[in-house]
Amino acid sequence: MHYAFLTHSNSSHHGSFAQTAAVSRTSRDCEAPEKEGQPFCLNAVVCSADAVKQRNLINSETADIRGKVTFDFKNPEALKALTTTLLQKDFGLQVEIPSNRLVPTLPLRLNYLLWMEDLIHFSDKPREKETKGVDIGSCGASCIYPLLATTTNKWKILATEIDNESVDCARRNVARNGLEEFITVKHVGAGTILKGAVDMDHTYDFTMCNPPFFRSERDADSSSKSRSNARTLPRGGKTGSSSEVVVEGGEVAFVRQMIQESAELRDMVRIYSTMVGQKSSLYVLKSELKKAGVASSTQTAFCQGNVTRWGLAWTFLPDVSLEVVSKKKKKEKPPMKYVVPVPVDPLCYTVSTVTSKLKAFFTQLQIEYKECKGNKRSSVFEVMAHKNTWSHQRQKRRQQKKYERQQTLEGNNSCETSVSDSTDTRSDLKGSGFTLPETPSPTLQSLSQTGITLIKRKGDEEYENNNKRLKKEEDESLQMTDDLLDYYNQTHNSGSPNEGSPQSTSQSELYSQSVKSGCIKMSQNLKINESAGDRFEENKDDKRHTKIVDNIHENEDCDPTLSPDTLQKRDDTSEGNSNSYLLNALVSVCKVGPDIVIEMSWLEGTHGRDAMHQVMQYIKNNLKIE
Ligand SMILES: C[S@@+](CC[C@H](N)C(=O)[O-])C[C@H]1O[C@@H](n2cnc3c(N)ncnc32)[C@H](O)[C@@H]1O
């Protein structure tokens, strides 16, 4: 007989619970594909379940026609025997569970504890201090959370419970495992959740709670009509007394009271948390948290097989950033990495030097940043950008130069037809007989932006070469624009361009021809790159290609003669509104062996990961340590 054991595979920094943890499925379930987004992977750890057999968990009547024996998950006695067997086998715990009490399913309990571990870890609690927590009103008869938490982490737990019978049984379970030094079981009155439970002379690292979810016996009955039709019936049998799972007002009322009491206790506890049984409750409770004025909060989903529960945590301490924990876990793709090159003076090659440079860039680019962590070996920031300040850098610089030049001219020249801006220059030039191509530069601009920052793909030589050539040609052509303007300004200031010398005509013709041929070449290149892009995207990501093409069109509208301000305004308006982030990412600077590595993990943003790539490119281009 083989059982599928769940192994936690996506968590945890300390690697505790890396051991096989619990059984929750039959071997038949094990063959079923995992649910999408499920944070656990089912490692089919094959184990001989002699102990399970010995305790008659296997109902031979449930053997199918091929003689395959299955586990009877509907049978509360079988569930109880399974849980106690696993606690013994995997954690060395001897646990008694009375027949009329809740049988804890281990994967869910472990999920919650692992999340708690992560929260504590990221809350930067000093390592040397022992971890003290409270298992509020949910120690139950088994005292499951305190037993697991102390066995695996040596945390000290105050476990509270209102039910007399459960309190007695929980105390026996603690004593049976010799854990009195770590766990205190406290009998509390029903009217209080936190205030009457915690010791006012102490501070705690966390509180946790698996509250009664239901407001009535009827709700608790899985076969009742109150259950939505969209939900499949639970596979497991019902265990537990109504006093354990039912509370007036259901979980929302229970947790609401908990939040209100936490607002009074505030900093006495670093992180408050609770499990939530229904997703709909989360929305209500999150607004309660807002009302209570918490400093930060986070939520997560515990997915195990068919059952999903949610975790909600909050803090009143401003230095505990819970959002970062959930965001860190949310990131689906590996972070972007950049190994900072060693400078001439290796003494400057430190995390703090790189960190200060990054802070300066963020300030310069108007990217908000919040330092989450900082020490000699690493620093972590959460960065938020509302607008794109890093694109069009070259264009903006060039525009700025032109402006400055024109301003100098205006200062020097009282001529009526002085150049006021590049658009005027264009029309003046037209009138003057110079042939300025109608809109050469939009194409160039579009190439500048699409070709360089958007079309670029790793590893495709043809692509890289095209981009390099585009960049070179663009530089040349734009340089010519500047030269032409210079030339025009010179001739214009010294008289009418119509009176230009043969030299001026030949220069303008030369210019016009080169720009034209540049444009033709570039449109060809654009096509080449587009088709290379097509090939690249064919089996990959159609959206990406659409995006490239969209950007080409968007950029074709771009007038190179726009003022730097107008350019910026255009960036601002095209890049989303003030309520949404264009980019929200985590940036870290870490010492990894001899290297200093900058990592960027995308969290969210209206422009996807492109914005993060662009900011990283900006850093690469500009980071000079000396
Ligand atoms: C859903 S059970 C959870 C039991 C156990 N922690 C587990 O996860 O299996 C909820 C428990 O909270 C207890 N409880 C309900 N209200 C309480 C309160 N105000 N203070 C303390 N315990 C309470 C119930 O008696 C019950 O044992």
TrEMBL record:
Its EC number is 2.1.1.346. Keywords: Methyltransferase, S-adenosyl-L-methionine, Transferase. Residues 457-474 have a biased composition (Basic and acidic residues). S-adenosyl-L-methionine binds at R109, G137, E161, N210. Pfam families: Methyltransf_10. GO terms for cellular component: nucleus. GO terms for molecular function: U6 snRNA (adenine-(43)-N(6))-methyltransferase activity. Residues 441-452, 488-514 have a biased composition (Polar residues). GO terms for biological process: rRNA base methylation. Residues 217-244, 388-514, 553-576 are annotated as: Disordered. Belongs to the methyltransferase superfamily. METTL16/RlmF family. This is U6 snRNA m(6)A methyltransferase. It comes from Coptotermes formosanus (Formosan subterranean termite).
